[in-house]
Design a protein that fits this description.
This protein has 15 helices and 11 strands. By secondary structure, it is of the alpha/beta class.
Length: 395
């Protein structure tokens, strides 16, 4: 039965990993894989995470199922982290948290819920967007559409975005990146979030907000501005949250689907349906990552350590963005790549062409996605001079 099954190309980013490993260039640089790295190129385990795991190992008494919605203790800490302490949405009991296998799992839960409960709605994503968005939603049976986000000059095309949103059919779903837009790094300002809110309200659109990088842009609360605005001003919002980046627990697959409804009764109705969707997908989410997050955020001491570590990671990335542009100044390229310092999060749409990316890989051992998307966390003060020299050579 398998003889007619064809081989398909592997994931482009995973292919970069293999090519990078085989490269013998001692100065090679990996800017492809989307994980945080320190100045030595490692993805460390946060101290708060290690201490939380030690406590879990000591105190854990069972490995039983945690239920389709996950551990209640996890939802108790994620909801205020995302929606804010003292949130009117939480006070009105309008929000429900469902622990999921990573942010990707939360997106798939949302996609299946929309396909089953809101049939006929298309979903609109930014152009460009995280590549896996292009797979997750069609796999759930949804029709995927795009709205413009970056123009030909590699700048945020907010006017184009807003004009396109005004043409979306009423009732459709629009996916928005809360912060640290992947892959571009271009984020909306607070004023732009208000303009998007007005269009979403006028068109009766359902916002699905992908919140994968809370704390990696400007701060935990600052990065949540658009999410909280939408949740407080609209009757219905879907939010997908991830702890992979801000807790550094990529392999633990820890995310959350947050459903916001008009009132508590409607929220409970929606919550009952989400439980079925989760049950049909994977029954129960993995428990360990959520237990780590819960242990940290329920402890004032560990939460303080975690916030300090997260601030250090965020500040390092933002500093490297500025230092990268500064390193290009001798070659007269600082203005051309000034956008890198303006962007936020781990990723940057550098403006490098596919041909330039190929040359950087083949001639200098510098690896990034052919769209020109670079993982800024792969920069270091040691490799910045080499990166600047190589980029100047291919320009």
């Amino acid at each position: 039965m398998f003889e007619k099954i064809e081989r398909v190309p592997g994931d482009a980013i995973l292919g970069l990993i293999e090519a990078f490993k085989k490269d013998t260039n001692p100065q090679k640089v990996d800017l492809g894989v989307g994980v945080y790295k320190d100045d030595q190129g490692n993805t460390p385990v946060m101290r708060a995470v290690k201490e939380a795991e030690a406590l879990l190992l000591k105190n854990e008494t069972t490995k039983t199922y945690i239920g389709s919605h996950g551990a209640p203790e996890y939802g108790e800490v994620i909801l205020p982290m995302v929606l804010g302490e003292g949130s009117p949405v939480l006070e009105a009991k309008r929000a429900s948290a469902t622990q999921s296998p990573g942010g990707t799992g939360a997106l798939r839960l949302a996609a299946d819920f929309i396909a089953k409960q809101l049939p006929g709605r298309d979903i609109w994503v930014s152009d460009p967007t995280w590549p896996n968005h292009l797979g997750i939603f069609p796999a759930a049976g949804l029709t995927l559409q795009k709205y413009p986000y970056v123009d030909a000059e590699n700048r945020l095309d907010f006017d184009g975005m807003l004009a396109a949103l005004k043409q979306i059919p009423e009732g459709d779903v629009v996916l928005l990146h809360a912060c640290c837009h992947n892959p571009t790094g271009f984020d909306l300002s607070r004023d732009q979030w208000h303009q998007v809110l007005e269009v979403v309200r006028e068109r009766s659109l359902l916002p699905l907000i992908d919140f994968a990088y809370q704390g990696f842009g400007e701060g935990l609360d600052e990065d949540a501005y658009g999410v909280r605005l939408m949740a407080e001003k609209l009757d219905e919002v879907i939010i997908t949250s991830s702890c992979s980046k801000n807790f550094g627990i990529y392999c633990e697959r820890t995310g959350c689907l947050i459903m916001v409804a008009k009132n508590n009764e409607q929220m409970e109705n929606v919550r009952s349906q989400i439980a079925i969707v989760a049950r049909e997908n994977y029954s129960n989410p993995p428990a360990h990552g959520g237990a780590i997050v819960s242990e940290i955020l329920h402890s004032a001491e560990l939460a303080a350590i975690w916030r300090e570590e997260l601030t250090e990671m965020r500040d390092r990335i933002n500093t490297l963005r500025r230092d990268f542009v500064e390193a290009l100044k001798p070659a007269g390229l600082d203005q051309k790549y000034a956008c890198v310092a303006e962007q936020r999060g781990m990723f940057s749409y550098t403006g490098l062409t596919p041909e330039q990316v190929d040359r950087l890989r083949d001639e200098y051992g510098i690896y990034m996605v052919r769209s020109g998307r670079a993982n800024v966390a792969g920069f270091s003060h040691e490799n910045l001079p080499y990166l600047a020299k190589a980029i100047a050579a291919v320009n």
